[in-house]
């Protein structure tokens, strides 16, 4: 599998998809940005997000972005995936490390952010403002890149009104900024005990497989269009 490594600072979880299982990702991150020679000719897909992207509770090679890489390889598409998920991150936290992210080379940026805001009941207007700013700055830094936003949903803790407003934020941001909107990350997984770990929030391996299918459903046609250009 093509090698790639993007290190986003000492606090970031950052794993290349050929990083050996068990290697300390923070130690790797401390070394600074690294690009390896065997990635020549492959375009980079950069996944930024929360513990859901990082693959919390799973083996190092079982996060959905790794599964996406295997789908890409099977399809013969010239892309490599890089997982830059950070557990516990909010949309405000993503903004704080965005300058690091935007130093990287990427052809596609996939943004999974907001789930932790929803857990904390962050005001939806603030979530919208942060996401729009993330997209705006990403577009300014990498105008040739394709940016995709992942639909997220709030847990029912804060009531139906908040949940509806939270859902609508992603549609509004995608429409306002002109980026693509991928399906709800946890579609068919959320609320199903057999597909989640003991916390009821993070997918287990079976659930993660379904997550990868959700992402691939929206991502594959985007990649094929970019290759055909």
* Secondary-structure element pattern, one letter each: HEHHEHEHHEHEH
What CATH architecture do you see? 3-Layer(aba) Sandwich
End-to-end distance: 24 Å
Number of structurally distinct domains: 1
Rg value: 16 Å
Provide a compact summary of the structure.
This protein has 229 residues and is an alpha/beta fold. 44% of the residues lie in helices and 11% in strands. The protein has helices spanning 25-30, 51-54, 64-75, 91-101, 115-120, 124-141, 159-177, 205-228; strands spanning 43-49, 79-85, 108-111, 146-150, 180-182.
Question: Could you describe the 3D structure shown?
Answer:
The chain is built from 8 helices and 5 strands. With 229 residues, it is α/β, with parallel strands linked by helices. The protein has one domain (25-228): Rossmann fold (3-Layer(aba) Sandwich). A 5-stranded parallel sheet has the order 2-1-3-4-5, sandwiched between helices. The chain is globular and about 45 Å long.
Descriptive terms for the model:
disordered N terminus, 5-stranded parallel β-sheet, single chain, 44% helix, globular, alpha/beta, Rossmann fold, 229 residues
Indicate the topology.
Layout: H1 25-30, E1 43-49, H2 51-54, H3 64-75, E2 79-85, H4 91-101, E3 108-111, H5 115-120, H6 124-141, E4 146-150, H7 159-177, E5 180-182, H8 205-228
